[in-house]
Amino acid sequence: MSAPARLPRLTLCADASRAAGEDPIGTAPHWQEVTVLELDVPLWAQVRDAATWTDEQRGVFERLRGKVESSGAGFGLLMSAPAQAGGPLRVRHYVQSAVPGAAFVRRDYASAWPQSEWARGLNDTLLEPHHLGSWQALGGPDPATPDLHVCTHGTVDAACGRYGVPVHAALLGAGQRAWRTGHFSGHRFAATAVDLPSGYLWAHLTPDLAVQVARRAVHPAEVAGHLRGFAGLPPQAQVLDRAMLIRHGWPWLEARRWAEVGEHGVTLHFDYGGESGVARAEVRPAAPLLLPGSSHKPDLGEIRQWTLGEVREVRTAP
């Protein structure tokens, strides 16, 4: 009897990205706020599958779509596994800060509702925050300790299961705040993580590197090639923001910044270190790469890359 034929080994999109030398900067989604739903892992598929939504759940997403279209900036929806399965619905809500000190401000809320009422968490944080009075507000964490939301959603893309699970385990083993998190885009960057309240997204993390980043134990210049960008800015401004992070180090996370993206470059306004200022640079498209869309779809697509010109920084007194 002949041996059964071996199935071809799946080529992971994250491996293809690393092999091609992809620079992940400028791939962070642009968010003004982020809601994290603490849901048991079996519920993640339901939240992602519109065919299973109730009329109420569908209505919430329709209203959220309208909010994005009117504001021009999106929102982050993350699903993280709770510390103990089967508990009631809890949410973590991050809102972009209007003052220097942290990019996003976090608030935690608990409810008596079952997790199947997850649409309430979206409605009450992102659409009708006055309803949060019916939730139990919880004490916030130490703002100096980052929250790492690591995508481990292997059923969406095998790369996130292969690389995300050991990164999450390493962070927990090192005493860091970390959550197993459902897909939030960018599986070719596995292991990928959302770092809050800084608002940074990371790419191609290894267990050791993830711990170093969480502890800010390595200079940003050494991990710049792993940075997808700051979610508080549009893509081209994320490229300039990375240069400012390299220039100023981790204290740059405390800067409040906003950007203007024009035909001739990016102007990044900031309040930092008791001063205000602007940084300007040209940010232009570079030669794109051809990479698979996911580990399960081998068709190649163009992946945008960026090139950054000279950065000019001017400080002004407040």
Describe the SSE topology:
Elements: H1 13-19, E1 31-38, H2 41-48, H3 55-71, E2 74-80, E3 90-96, E4 104-110, H4 118-127, E5 136-138, E6 147-151, H5 158-173, E7 177-181, E8 193-196, E9 200-202, H6 207-215, H7 220-223, E10 227-230, H8 235-248, E11 256-262, E12 265-272, E13 275-281, E14 283-294, E15 297-308, E16 312-316
Parallel strand pairs: 1-2, 6-7
Antiparallel strand pairs: 1-3, 3-4, 4-5, 6-8, 8-9, 9-10, 11-12, 12-13, 13-16, 14-15
Key words describing this protein structure:
318 residues, alpha+beta, five-stranded mixed β-sheet, 33% strand
Explain what this protein looks like in three dimensions.
The structure is a single chain. This protein is α+β, with helices and mostly antiparallel strands. It has one domain (10-234). 27% of the residues lie in helices and 33% in strands. It is built from eight helices and 16 strands. Helix 5 links the parallel strand 6 and strand 7. The model has no long low-confidence stretch (mean pLDDT 92).
Q: Assign a percent range to the helix content.
A: 25-40%
**Pattern of helices and strands:** HEHHEEEHEEHEEEHHEHEEEEEE
E-strand count: 16
Average residue pLDDT: 92
How would you sum up the global shape? Answer: globular
Q: What proportion of the residues form beta strands (DSSP E)?
A: 25-35%
What summary fits the major beta sheet? 5 strands, mixed
Number of domains: 1
The number of helices is: 8
Structural class: alpha+beta
How far do the termini sit from each other? 81 Å
CA gyration radius, whole angstroms: 20 Å
User: What spatial order of strands do you see in the largest sheet?
Assistant: 2-1-3-4-5
Low-confidence stretches: none
